[in-house]
Amino acid sequence: xxxxxxxxxxxxxxxxxxxxxxxxxxxxxxxxxxxxxxxxxxxxxxxxxxxxxxxxxxxxxxxxxxxxxxxxxxxxxxxxxxxxxxxxxxxxxxxxxxxxxxxxxxxxxxxxxxxxxxxxxxxxxxxxxxxxxxxxxxxxxxxxxxxxxxxxxxxxxxxxxxxxxxxxxxxxxxxxxxxxxxxxxxxxxxxxxxxxxxxxxxxxxxxxxxxx
Length: 212
Prior knowledge:
Elements: H1 2-6, H2 28-40, H3 45-50, H4 55-73, H5 81-95, E1 99-108, E2 111-119, E3 121-122, H6 127-144, H7 151-171, E4 179-188, E5 191-194, H8 196-206, E6 207-208
Parallel strand pairs: 3-6
Antiparallel strand pairs: 1-2, 2-4, 4-5
Helix pairs in contact: 4-5, 5-7, 6-7
């Protein structure tokens, strides 16, 4: 049991989907800020307006991204809904600490480029940290349940340890050095949208999973 438990790594990937492209006449800077606010801050109104979409649709996309992150973190283990929700709420709180400043837009041949100054948020979910959380949870589990071999009960305790760690991080976030990301907006079917590579770069620069 120990070998299996200690082999676990808590993982996170910033997963953000997008609603359909935005109307042809729009503020590129405001669009990128709206995208980031909806993805990181759970602030959906402006992005929904810019994309001529319902707030509920944008919120649905956000919730899917958070749920995908929780699923990624729990790969290979089974926990109850309460534990999943604890991790979910902790992630929501952590993401709201994302730091970014959206600069001016520059017109290009196929759309716009928008400079975004990012201060990366470090989650610190290194292999060492995950092993530490797993070991501490196992010690607690064995102390409280000395004769139990219920792995699901242990997994729930481990999951709650992850949630607690993330909740503490949300209260005292750790940041790296500022960097700049160039977000590219392209036109497709007479609508503008943030290209996939820019989405990925923004998301993975804003939230660093394994850095201390």
